[in-house]
Amino acid sequence: MRKYVPKDNVQAKSYYTDRFWVAPRVPRSTVEDTHFLAVVEAVGTQANETYVELGQLVIHINPKNNFEVMKTLKEKCGYTQCSEQSAVDYLAQDNEFELFWQLLNINEAKRIRVICRLANGLAIESIEPLYKSANFAEREMFDMFGIKVNNHPFLKRILMPDDWEGNPLLKTYPLQGDEFASWYEVDKIFGKEYRDIIGPENRDPAKIDTEDTKRFSRVGYEVPFGADISEGETKTAIEYSETFLVDYNKNSSKQLDERR
Amino acid sequence: MQVANKLSPFFENLNFERDDNTMVINFGPQHPSAHGQLRLVLELDGEQVVKAYPDIGYLHRGIEKMAENMTYNEFLPTTDRLDYIASTSNNYAYALAVEKLIGVEAPRRAQVIRTMLLELNRIISHLFFVATHALDVGAMSVFLYAFREREFAMDLMEDYCGARLTHSAVRIGGVPLDIPKGWLENAAAFCDKVDYEVEHTYEALLTENRIWKMRLEDVGVISAEDALSWGCSGVMLRGSGVKWDIRKEEPYELYPELDFDIPISDRCDSYGRYKLYIEEMRQSTRIIRQLIPMYKDTKPQLMAHSPQYISAPKEEIMTQNYALMQHFVLVTQGMRPPKGEVYIPTESPKGELGFYIKSEGEPYAYRLKCRAPSFFHTGLLQKLLVGTYIADVVTIIGTTNIVFGEVDR
């Protein structure tokens, strides 16, 4: 039977986990810092949950309120820089994305993280009018996760080509790329009908083709670039050292017809 | 449309006749001063830029995706490929984020070595900036002199870790190696050399140079408000008069114990930023000089003791069965940090380099986001280039000091 592979998360997983293993959690503490308390008060009822994790205040909000919350944080609490924003894929577990914004207050030297859960298929409001750094960051989020951003001035793919299919950072997207990715160049440059002629990309970095005279696989036995060596040159059999390796040549080994 | 014939060839980079009487010009991605793989689409009115569109992604390798498919220790050498001019600062930023997550602090000697390597990498990066920026603007000889000193710095890195470009000189929980014999003396001599050359070569060649000043003064002006809003950090922020250095404000490693100044400039232009880079090199040598005597008073432990997350030293693995078992589990399965999320910023030579790590208690990070300073500095180009002249475009790209390893990741 073929081994079952879950389709909703194709990323690498631990091959063994003790059945009694329970992952601990990074300690979360209640908000005690006076500056953070003022921030929590300013955000008010728009915050669903607040706590301090590793020295930074974390505020959970509803995705609908993100613009108002950011506006409050920028104008009332002095968070003048949005240093990072992106998303985390929780589609397999909850059919949701977790979006985070990492804000910085340079006068107080404090950082907070605003987090919201956005259901799959919904769009988020752009914070580009408040923080211009969101211009590139939201484009990257759109590119990598396919999360649409409302009122973004130029929502377009940023790292991947414009005609790319799929969003690379989704958990459903394999590390090696999907079928579209593996044939992207061939399809684009030559056309789909050339897939059979060109063949799949070889990803084995140690592959040596002794017949190939166009690359550097014949070091010490060079011939002119691209010369045809199919005729006239005897093929050298690969010989293994008998001292270190067992000789697996067909002549000396015997193939059994039946299982013993 | 262009009509190409023998007398007027087809200009594939240009689009002349548009309705609004502007010309669209394509810059890069193979332009020598595109700092790697930057493609800029510029809309010109005469020689003035009316619209700039930075197009990135030509060096995208999916490093964040790879992080989700590698154990924490496996991923560390990959961070070398972010800002490949100063690899150790990437290794360190990543290691620090994981250390915060697992609650481990590196031993004192490792901290001394790490801080020295970080500052050495800052010098390497700033020398590279001065060299390439001068080359972009047209001062060829500075390039040769600055690369000469950079070679000496890379020799020091080679003596320490064996690599010149992709160092991987930091591990999660410490450093892999102790300092070799004679390294501290070489480092002290290198500091003297850099101080001498900064004053007598680069500053003498550039600072009061009439052409250099004409090309850099009042070029690429960023207001403090813009710099904050566009996510600038590092010299780009300090060059706009904002006093913000993570080494001082949110100190990590040995920086709180060290005596150094943060130069700021309120000129807001390329010349001010060039002066900051020069001054930061002096501060870095000052830091390294303070660290050299600190090394002697430290105990020889190099890696933190935390058996759940970090392998024991080699002697223990070879002599004690339990240490061997733990080492085996850590190598084959990888460490499992607790559930939680962390964002730790560090002051890399380019600006604020931070790693956001979301852990679900698995040996693989559930999500890793690399906050690269150059990414946001590239975004700023669409604001910064508008209104400037085509001759200043290369200067402005140079002054942002972007590295495409970390823009595209």
Q: Main β-sheet of chain A, in a few words?
A: 6 strands, mixed
Query: Under the CATH scheme, which architecture of chain B would be assigned?
Result: Orthogonal Bundle
- Rg on CA atoms of chain B, Å: 23 Å
Radius of gyration of chain A: 28 Å
Oligomer: heterodimer
What is the β-strand count of chain B? 7
Number of helices of chain A: 7
Task: Summarize the main sheet of chain B.
Answer: 4 strands, antiparallel
Residue ranges of chain A: pLDDT <50 for 5 or more in a row? none
Q: What is shown here, in short?
A:
Chain A is an alpha/beta fold and 260 residues long. Chain A contains 7 helices and 8 strands; from the N terminus they run βαββαβαβββαβααα. Chain A is elongated.
Give a description of the structure:
The complex is a heterodimer of chains A (260) and B (409). Chain A has 260 residues and is an alpha/beta fold. Chain A has a domain at 28-150: 2-Layer Sandwich (Beta Polymerase, domain 2). Helix content of chain A is 19%, strand content 19%. Chain A is built from seven helices and eight strands; from the N terminus they run E-H-E-E-H-E-H-E-E-E-H-E-H-H-H. Chain A has helices at residues 34-43, 66-75, 91-94, 134-145, 179-182, 184-189, 195-198, and strands spanning 28-29, 47-53, 56-61, 81-90, 96-105, 110-119, 124-125, 149-150. Chain A has a six-stranded mixed β-sheet. In chain A, strands 7-8 form a two-stranded parallel sheet. The model of chain A has no long low-confidence stretch (mean pLDDT 86). Chain B is an alpha+beta fold. Chain B has one domain: Cytochrome-c3 Hydrogenase, chain B, CATH 1.10.645. Helices cover 49% and strands 11% of the residues of chain B. Chain B contains 16 helices and seven strands. In chain B, the strands form two sheets. In chain B, strands 1-2-3-4 form a four-stranded antiparallel β-sheet. In chain B, strands 5-6-7 form a three-stranded antiparallel β-sheet. In chain B, helix 2 runs antiparallel to helix 3 and helix 4 runs antiparallel to helix 5 (140-161). The longest helix of chain B has 30 residues, at 108-137. The radius of gyration of chain B is 23 Å and the shape is globular. The two termini of chain B are 37 Å apart. Chains A and B meet through strand 4 and helix 4 of A and helix 1, helix 8, strand 5, strand 6 and strand 7 of B.
